Amino acid sequence: MRLLFFYVFFVWLKASLATNILGNETHVIALLQFKESISNDPYGVLSSWNTSSHFCNWHGITCSIKHQRVQQLSLQQCQLHGTISPYIGNLSFLRTLNLASNSFYGEIPGR
């Protein structure tokens, strides 16, 4: 009985970790693609956006506590120039997008 419990627990843990890793990878890719679409970042606000730290610690990012997914992207008044990457649509938990006082051009990607 004890062996069955540990087996079930291990399978559950493995599935749970895989879901978190895959979900987080999607958010990392979406954010790095967003960064790549920026042609000018005069204040260097996106310099923290790299794989050396968790994306929830990047400038302008607020994540949900439970799922560690991007809920808010706030980069207002950063004087960024570029396009809004269509990858932003992959931030499935995103609730707030604040890009006021920047210079973006092109279409706003939809889901």
Automatic annotation (TrEMBL):
The Leucine-rich repeat-containing N-terminal plant-type domain is annotated at: 30-64
Leader peptide range in chain numbering: 1-18
Under InterPro entries, the record lists: DNA_repair-toleration, Leu-rich_rpt, LRR_dom_sf, LRR_N_plant-typ
Kindly give the Pfam families that the UniProt entry links to this protein. Answer: LRR_1, LRRNT_2
Keyword list (alphabetical) reads: Leucine-rich repeat, Repeat, Signal
The entry's protein name is Leucine-rich repeat-containing N-terminal plant-type domain-containing protein
**Gene3D superfamilies under this entry?**
Ribonuclease Inhibitor
PANTHER family in the record: DNA DAMAGE-REPAIR/TOLERATION PROTEIN DRT100 (PTHR48060), L DOMAIN-LIKE PROTEIN (PTHR48060:SF21)
